[in-house]
Amino acid sequence: MNNGRTASSPVGLHRVLEPSGVLPQAALRLDASPRLWPDEVRIAIERLNLDAASFRQLSLAHGGDGAAVRTSVLGMIRTSGKMHNPVTGSGGMLVGTVEEVGPESTLGLSVGERVATLVSLTLTPLVVTDGLIGWDGRAEQVPATGHAILFGRSIAARLPDDLPTSLALAVLDVCGAPALTARVVRNRVDGGAVPSVAVIGAAGKSGSLALSAARRAGAGRLVGVVLIESEAAALRAADLADEIVLADARDPVALAQAIGKPVDVTVVCVDVPGCEGGAILSTAAGGTVVFFSMATSFTAAALGAEGLAADVTMLVGNGFVPGHADLALQLIREDAGVRRLFTQRLGLP
Amino acid sequence: MNNGRTASSPVGLHRVLEPSGVLPQAALRLDASPRLWPDEVRIAIERLNLDAASFRQLSLAHGGDGAAVRTSVLGMIRTSGKMHNPVTGSGGMLVGTVEEVGPESTLGLSVGERVATLVSLTLTPLVVTDGLIGWDGRAEQVPATGHAILFGRSIAARLPDDLPTSLALAVLDVCGAPALTARVVRNRVDGGAVPSVAVIGAAGKSGSLALSAARRAGAGRLVGVVLIESEAAALRAADLADEIVLADARDPVALAQAIGKPVDVTVVCVDVPGCEGGAILSTAAGGTVVFFSMATSFTAAALGAEGLAADVTMLVGNGFVPGHADLALQLIREDAGVRRLFTQRLGLP
User: B26 to chain A: which residues are within 8 Å by CB?
Assistant: First the structure.
C-alpha cells in the first residue's frame, strides 16, 4: 500500500491519501485500489444511487445536460477516489455484489451476496471502469461497473430476495429512524412504562416506519401528525396510529394543541426547518424528543428547550443503530399498512 | 388584559401581542404590563446582562458610539416589550429583586429575593423606566430600572449571599452543563457501571463544572482535553481530571489518539465548529456524546456517526435540567479547583 502504513484502520484512515490524518469523509483523495487490507471487503458495483440533493445540484449546474453531468460525476470519482459532491457535501449509496472478503473482516458478508452500502459514498473508496456508459445523466440511479471498498467498521445490508430492489432501497435509506425509535420506546417499556408516542411527519417513509416500530416496541397511545388531509387519509388506511391529527409542525401552539396531552416520546421526521419548539412543547416533562430531520437546528432545539424550561431529553437521530436494516426490512414485510404506503409512493404494483 | 384571554398560559402565550399564536420567543411584541396573571412573578430589575454576541453586533453597527447603542437598545425594548436583538436572535439575562408573586406561581420565589433569570431576555416581558441613564452603552452589563415578568413555567435562581454577583452569574450562565453531565453519568452508575468521561474544552466555564460534576456523580477515569499548554497547567492546578491531554478537537484522529481508550461519555464544551467527528470517534460503542457547544452542527453529528457506524447516543445539550442552578452553585462553593479557575478568569481576588 502506498501510504506507508502497516495496519489498516477500521474507519479507513489507511485509505486517506490527502490531506493526511483526516477521516475518509473529510479527505480530498482516497486510495481506491482493489487490493484488500485484511479487514476490508470489495464490492463489484452494479448501481450508484446519487443523493437527491447532489443530483439536483449537478443537473442545475449543467443546465440539465446529461452528458455534462456524467462527465462531471466521472471526474469527481476519478479525482477523489469516491463520489463526493463538493457543493452539497453529499454522496449517496450503492448496490453491488460482494467480490472478495478479507480474512479479518467482521461485517459478516460472503462472496456473491447482493448488498447495499449504508454508509455514505462520500467516504467509500470507488473506481468506475465503464465510463458510466449506461447512464444518460438524467436520473439519480446510475448503472455502473467497477468496484468499491468497505472498511472494517462499515455497514452494508444484504438485499433481500423477496422484495423489489427499489422498495428495499427506499426502506434501507431511512432504517435508522425505526431502530432508534424502537430503542427509545423499549427503554421506557423496560422501565415499567407504557409510553405515549407522537410521530411528526407520520405518513412519510421514516415516519411510517417509526410508527410501526413504536407500536411493536410496546408504545401506548400512538399519535400520527400530518400536514394535509390526503396524508391523513393514507395514514388512516395504513392503520398505524391510534390518533391522526392535522397540524403544521412549524406552529408550536397548533402542534401542541393537535397532539393534546403531551407525549412521552416525540419523533420528528418532517424535513422542514422550525419544528423544534413545537416538538418540545408537545413532549411531557421527563420525555424524549428524537430529531431525525436533517433540517433540525441544533441551537433552536437547545435554546428552545431552555426557554420553555422543558426537562426533555433531545436526541440527534443517529442513522446507525445495530440491527437497523433487518428491523426495517422486517417491518416492511410484516406490516401491510407501512408496505402499502411505500409501494404507493414508489408507484409499485 | 388586552388580548381577550381569560386564563394565562404557563409558557406566556397570553402575553403575545403579535403575531398571535407564536411562542414569546418568536413574538414581535409582548404585553409587558406590570399587572400579574395569577401564575406570574414580577421582578424589579437592577441590571441586564446583554448576550455577548448581541452587544458586539450593536457596538459594531454603531461604530462604538455608546449613546447610539443605548438608544438602539431602548428602542428595541420599547417596541417589542422584550430585549431581543433581531440581528443576532439573542437576548441575555437579568438580575433583580422579586417585587410581587402571583398566588398561583409555582416558581418558589418570595418578595424581596434577589434573583437572576435563567431564561432568555428574548422571551421575557420587560419595561425600562429610567431611559438606561446609568449605562454608557459601552459594556454588556446594563444598570437599569423597570420591571420584568416571569411566566408560570420559567426559571429564576436566587442569587446567593455568599458569592460575588459576577461569580454567581458566570456560574449560572453555564449551569445546564454540569447538571446534564451529572445525570448522564449517574444513569450509568445506577446501571452498575463506573463510566469513563472525557470533557473537551475542559478548562473553560462549562467544561470545568462538567468535570467536577462528573466526578461527584461517580465517574471513573476522567479525561480533560484542552487546546494549549496554559489551559493544561490551569486544569492541572485545579485537580479536576485524572488525565489532561492536549488536542485540537477539530482533528478527529488527533483527538481520539489523545484520549486513548474510547470513553463511555464525551462532553463537548468547546465553542468551535467541527468537533463532532472527533467526539464520536472518541466514544465507545454504547456510549453517549453530550453536545453543549452552540457551534455544533446537527447534520455533522448525525451523518458523522452513521459514517463511522458508531452506535453512540448523541444528546442536544438542553440548558435546563431541574436543580441545575443549585448544583452548579454548590460545585463552585465546594470544589476549590473549579472556583479558582472561575475567579482567575473573572479577575476576582
Answer: 252, 277
What residue of A is the nearest CA neighbor of B301?
A316
pTM for the whole structure: 0.89
Q: What angle is formed at CA A47 by the lines to CA B307 and CA A173, rounded to 5 degrees?
A: 45
- Whole-number pLDDT of residue B215: 98
Contact A252 B321 (CB under 8 A): no
Cis check: omega of the bond before B19, within 30 degrees of 0: yes
**Number of Cβ atoms within 10 Å of the Cβ of B228:** 10
In tens, the pLDDT along A117-141 reads 998 899 999 999 999 999 999 988 8
DSSP secondary structure code for residue A95 in this structure: E
| Helical ranges in A138-264 per DSSP H | 165-173, 176-190, 205-216, 229-238, 252-259
DSSP string, A241-256: -SEEEE--TT-HHHHH
The widest CA-to-CA distance across chain B, in whole angstroms, is 61
**Which pLDDT score is estimated for A2?**
43
Beta bridge partners of B93: B49
Across the interface, of B297, B312, B320, the residue whose CB is closest to A309 is: B320
Tally C-beta pairs within 8 A across A and B. 151
d(CA B321, CA A123): 37
Q: What residue type is B145 in one-letter code? A: T
Nearest to B200 by CA among B292, B287, B297: B292
Residue of B51, B283, B298, B311 to mutate for A, most A C-beta atoms under 10 A = B298
Q: Which three cell numbers stand for residue B314?
A: 448523541
Q: Choose from B187, B306, B312 for mutation: most chain A CBs within 10 A.
A: B306
- Type of residue at B64: G
What's the rounded Cα separation, in Å, for the pair A282 and B332? 35
Q: Return the C-alpha torsion angle B29, B32, B38, B42, nearest 10.
A: 140
The rounded radius of gyration (Å) of the Cα atoms in chain B is 21
Query: Within a 13 Å sphere around the CA of A26, how many CA atoms are in the beta-carbon half?
Result: 19
Of the candidates A23, A298, A318, the beta carbon closest to that of B312 is on: A318
Q: What is the torsion angle, in degrees rounded to the nearest 10, for the CA atoms of residue A104, residue A105, residue A106 and residue A108? A: -130
CA torsion through residues A185, A188, A192, A197, sign: negative
What pLDDT, on a 0 to 100 scale, did the predictor assign at position A48? 93
- Contact (Cβ atoms closer than 8 angstroms) between residue B72 and residue B141: no
CB-CB under 8 Å, B294 with A302: yes
Q: What residue in B sits closest to A277 (Cα-Cα)?
A: B23
Q: What chain A residue is nearest to B308 in terms of C-alpha separation?
A: A11
State residue A172 phi and psi, 5-degree precision.
-65, -30
Residues 6+ positions from A4 with CB-CB distance below 8 Å: none
List the single residue in A11, A26, A309 with the smallest CB-CB distance to B119.
A309
Question: How long, in residues, is chain A?
Answer: 349
- DSSP labels for B192-240? T----EEEETTTSHHHHHHHHHHHHTT-SSEEEEESSHHHHHHHHHHT-
Residue among B252, B309, B321 minimizing CB distance to A153: B309
Here the ipTM equals: 0.88
pLDDT-derived band at A103, boundaries 50, 70, 90 = very high
- Cβ-based contacts of B25 with chain A (< 8 Å): 277, 303-304, 307
CB contact under 8 A, B306 and A119: yes
Q: Which of A22, A296, A308 has the CB atom closest to B11's CB atom?
A: A308
